[in-house]
């Protein structure tokens, strides 16, 4: 059986996927140990019986509802490959908007500090509910020539284990990792707080868990209206941000205006909503 025929047969079985051909291609490329681009150039080649059986097992996992990222234990984010498994939320492309927003804020802080002649002080950033660590690790790698002091906080011990895997693989040992419920056990203050906190409602989370969704409920459940942790984090940030510091959060598009209003009422200024590439509200930021 050729690679082309195997790929077509596998994708035809993925009726529960929105991207069956892409999913099948990633799985088959993994079996062959080649890139997806190389796979496309290998269509006429024959696939071994062993390779076909391995591919079929992966297809069965995808049919059972496992994301491709969990099956392959990897997910690309901001051009880097992060390790993922059922202990953490899979990084989404939309979260790259949060990283880009944070990098822009850091750039402005650098300029301000140069103007104020206090450039020797590091810019301190903490990422809350860090999970895989995709946000702080990416920011660390993208600001390697900047005087940064980066911290991450996470409540789940299992998620912290995954963070440490990515920390080692991607050379981010300088990032301090704290076990904390949001900012409750964080002793220092920061110039930037980033977070992609759980923001699904309890009912949304229950529906997903009942359907066999593999991601951890702790990383999804934001309370009755989805904003319990968001409200708490906004309140905590008042005492954890240095003067002029920024809070930057990701949430659902239909929560953005509400979150922005909460930030304004709490005492934040210069609040703004940033949209993703599809024009949907994705990230909100505010300054102390």
CATH architecture verdict of the largest domain: 3-Layer(aba) Sandwich
- Uncertain stretches: none
Number of E-type strands? 9
Terminus-to-terminus distance: 62 Å
CATH superfamily of the largest domain: Vaccinia Virus protein VP39
Task: Characterize the largest beta sheet: strand count, sense, and whether it forms a barrel.
Answer: 7 strands, mixed
Helix percentage: 40-55%
Describe it.
The chain is of the alpha/beta class. The protein has helices at 3-13, 20-32, 36-40, 49-63, 68-72, 95-115, 134-142, 157-169, 202-210, 228-240, 256-266, and strands at residues 75-77, 80-82, 123-128, 148-154, 176-179, 190-195, 241-250, 269-275, 281-287. The strands form two sheets. A seven-stranded mixed sheet has the order 5-4-3-6-7-9-8, sandwiched between helices. β4, α8 and β5 (176-179) form a beta-alpha-beta unit. α1 (3-13) runs parallel beside α4. The longest helix has 21 residues, at 95-115. The radius of gyration is 21 Å and the shape is globular.
Task: Give short descriptive properties of this protein.
9 strands; globular; seven-stranded mixed β-sheet; 288 residues; 11 helices; Rossmann fold
Summarize the structure.
This protein has 288 residues and is α/β, with parallel strands linked by helices. It contains eleven helices and nine strands.
């Amino acid at each position: 059986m050729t690679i082309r025929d195997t790929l077509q047969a596998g994708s035809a079985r993925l009726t529960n996927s929105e991207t069956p051909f892409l999913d099948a291609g990633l799985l088959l490329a993994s079996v062959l140990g080649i890139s997806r681009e190389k796979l496309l150039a290998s269509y006429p080649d024959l696939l071994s019986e062993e390779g076909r059986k391995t591919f079929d097992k992966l297809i069965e996992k995808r049919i059972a509802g496992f994301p491709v990222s969990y099956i392959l234990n990897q997910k690309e984010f901001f051009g880097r490959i992060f390790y993922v498994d059922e202990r953490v939320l899979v990084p989404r492309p939309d979260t790259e908007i949060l990283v880009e927003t944070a990098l822009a804020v850091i750039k402005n802080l650098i300029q301000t500090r140069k103007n104020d002649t206090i450039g020797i002080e590091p810019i301190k950033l903490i990422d809350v509910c860090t999970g895989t660590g995709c946000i702080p690790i990416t920011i660390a790698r993208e600001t390697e020539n900047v005087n940064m002091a980066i911290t991450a906080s996470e409540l789940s011990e299992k998620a912290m284990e995954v963070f440490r895997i990515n920390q080692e693989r991607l050379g981010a040992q300088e990032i301090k990792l704290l076990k904390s419920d949001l900012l409750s056990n964080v002793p220092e203050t920061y110039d930037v707080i980033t977070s992609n906190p759980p923001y699904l409602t309890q009912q949304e989370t229950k529906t997903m868990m009942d359907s066999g969704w593999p991601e951890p409920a702790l990383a999804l459940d934001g309370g009755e209206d989805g904003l319990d942790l968001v409200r708490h984090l906004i309140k905590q940030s008042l005492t954890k941000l240095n003067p002029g510091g920024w809070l930057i959060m990701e949430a659902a598009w239909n929560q953005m205006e509400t979150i922005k209003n909460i930030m304004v009422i709490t005492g934040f200024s210069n609040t703004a909503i940033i949209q993703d590439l599809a024009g949907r509200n994705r990230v909100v930021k505010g300054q102390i």
